[in-house]
Amino acid sequence: MTIDTLTIARPDDWHLHLRDGQALQAVVAATARQFARAIVMPNLKPPVTTVKLALAYRERIELALRAAGVAPGVFTPLMTLYLTDNTVPDDIVQAHESGSVVAVKLYPAGATTNSDAGVTDLLGRCSAVLETMQRVGMPLLIHGEVADQTIDIFDREAVFIERVMKPLRHAFPELRVVFEHLTTKDGVEYVRDAAGPVAATITAQHLLYNRNAIFQGGVRPHYYCLPILKREAHRVALVQAATSDSARFFLGTDSAPHARGLKEHACGCAGCYTALHAMELYATAFDQAGKLDKLEAFASFRGADFYGVPRNRDVLTLVREPFVIPTELAFGDETIVPLAAGESLPWRMA
Ligand code: DOR
Ligand code: ZN
After folding, report:
1. Which pLDDT band, with edges at 50, 70 and 90, does 339 fall under?
2. Nearest ligand 1 atom, CA 272
3. Cα separation of 207 and 209, whole Å?
């Protein structure tokens, strides 16, 4: 029997880029329409490195929500700090006491967009901070790719596990860790089998596409994100993980808006814009796997449980009706192209 209507507890997005200024204003309502909460990434220019900056950013997000007509309390941004070589343990204590900053993000320096201020040597430079995070229970959200440009771009996640993730978790076995935007079978096996408090987010694009999508009939910049799409065997492993009963895999869109001109460029930015149609994309992936019954746990339960916050009580309904993805959307003075623009998905939000 096919399911044509799916009502689930309102989901949360555990990995999101909201940007700032007119970009923030352009995208924030899309996330608030589908999700109750989101973990907001701190890779602004300059990065959000202190609690003071994080609280000021949160205020700007609240103002943008009100300006977009989103009622107070409908959507809660959960703030993060950007870890640098110069972060000190007191920053963590302040974050812990703030009640608003819920996690710290690790970008290996040079690994991705706005990561220049990131960490150069995690255990060498950040041990006191990691010790404090472990003690207060503050999660470390990890962009799990080595920045070493001599390593093949498709291997950077697997190499990161050996070079950074294993030594980190050996030194801090009780540190709460989220392996963000997991993209490989190696990553799935590591997270599934590791001892201790480890979880992972998975994006919609990594469930729906393999690396062929980037080169389908020509270069397709809107399918370029980091970590980059991998080969089919990895996509299959990610679908298995997301639709399994493991509590460790949950939803994080990594929706990463860039203006059209910066994507369709000689040196295009990394990032897929999925805030518009995130749940439609995930529903399509779960439906293709014959696992729609597992979508609620992945989208609405496991992330909240990992972060130790209540599950949402209101609901979201998806219906099996075609959703034609717009070819572009307004983005301040520019436009933005959503993932799979112009294509039709079999599910839409009711
Ligand atoms: O594709 C990506 N875009 N990956 C990242 O890690 C950063 C993000 C962004 O901020 O644009
Ligand atoms: Zn991201």
Report:
1. very high
2. 1
3. 6
Q: Ligand 1 atom closest to Cα of 107?
A: 6
Ligand 1 near 268 CB (within 6 A):
no
Q: Which ligand is nearest to the CA of 254?
A: 2
pLDDT at residue 16 in the model: 99
Domains contained in the chain, CATH given: 12-311 (3.20.20.140)
Q: In this predicted model, what pLDDT tens digit does every residue of 86-108 receive, in sequence order?
A: 999 999 999 999 999 999 999 99
Taking the mean position of all CA atoms in its chain, how far away is CA 182? 9
Strand partners, 78: 39
Is 155 an active-site residue?
no
Q: Whose CA is nearest to atom 2 of ligand 1?
A: 271
Give the closest residue to 79 by CA, choosing from 141, 131, 23: 141
Pocket of ligand 1 contains residue 43 by CB under 6 Å:
yes
Pairwise CA distance, residues 144 & 111, whole Å: 9
